[in-house]
Amino acid sequence: MTTMARNAEPRETAGRHPRPIYQLMHQGRNITSRFQGRLMSLTLTDNRGFEADQLDIELDDHDGLLDLPEKGARLSLALGWADSGVVDKGTFKVDEIEHSGPPDRLTIRARSADLGSDLTTRKERSFRDKTIGALVRAIASRNQLAAVIAQHLADQVIEHLDQTGESDANLLSRVAKDYDAIATVKQGKLLFIRAGEALSASGIPLPTVLVTRASGDTHNFMVADRENYNGVKAHYQDTRLAKKGEVVIDASNAAQVNEAPAPARGKKKPKETVTTYPNPDNVKVLRHTYATKANAERAARAEWVRMQRGVANFSITLARGRPDLFPELPAVVSGWKPQIDNTGWTITKVTHHLTERGYTTRLELEVKPAALEGEPADA
Questions:
Q1: How far is residue 145's CA from residue 189's CA, in Å, rounded to a whole number?
Q2: Mind telling me which Pfam families this protein's record contains (predicted)?
Q3: Average pLDDT, the chain
Q4: Percentage with pLDDT > 90 across the chain
Q5: DSSP β-ladder status, 345-355 and 283-290
Q6: Which residue has the higher pLDDT, 160 or 365?
Q7: Can you tell me the distance from the alpha carbon of 300 to that of 32, in angstroms, rounded to the nearest whole number?
Q8: ω before 103 within 30° of 0 (cis)?
Q9: Cis status, amide bond into 280, omega within 30 of 0
Q10: In 268-307, which positions are buried (b, 16+ CB within 10 angstroms) versus exposed (e)?
Q11: What is the pLDDT of residues 65-83, one digit of tens each?
């Protein structure tokens, strides 16, 4: 939601270009005016998943009058333009302070405050026959967060899941990877959604962003046969059904399983010969052994799709910063080569950079999952 800035910067004078503005709040008080004439740079890096968003503020302290902030202080940031107001970008907890010189300068580094201590504390427990929805809601409740879960993922049943010396954040990231999903915390919400599925913190689908060449300063498009794999293999060992085997996913999206039944009690286990079809000549083997065939196939398929998304990537620095942009938004680009314009994209990382010279936004994008499934780019 966009709110108009107060006590941030002077109003624009007729005929001048819009001026970038920012607003910093501490304990409910607007402290922006303390930094007037001192701000050298402000950089906000907005990441996907549980990688913490990072805020870096560099201030001029040539006269030595700046006080060092306390570690743990919480700062709320809003960014925008004087002609359109500011957009709330979240709350950040100061965890690094650096003073250097000459000339003297103070650097304040803060990371997103949504990642509570319980989310990052290691735990020991197991889950059986639990839906993703129930798992995410339980973790969200313990951390005083609201849960937003994609409907097609909420009812998926996890037959068995061990959490051994692992934080809830790592656990959710691992589960998300097996379902080609994203688990993240934004604005007091714990989101568990399909990778590239644009949902607001309230669960409402978000519109596609249009990025034109005219709005960009610099860009880079790269196509790479990044990992050079033509298949993904996952192993499983189902102790309840006494079966073991492997699943292979390749470009044809086919999966064949070789299952070896457990030997009868008292008999020597036969030597197992594993064969698969299709049999790609260069497969990526997942290191984890899954509890069921279905889990192995799901993980292999998710990894295959993830590999295909990494084949092409696109980045652009917008000459006029866009505070409304954030990771997981779908995007359509226009004004470049047909191979670029005709591809559906998803924003994966957003870096806002504000200095006395202006405000820019750098976007990093990957191929949208729908594009891998044959759907056309959004109009």
A1: 5
A2: Phage_GPD
A3: 79
A4: 29
A5: unpaired
A6: 365
A7: 49
A8: yes
A9: no
A10: eeeeeeeebeeebeebbebeeebbbbebbbbbbbbbbbbb
A11: 888 888 889 999 999 999 8
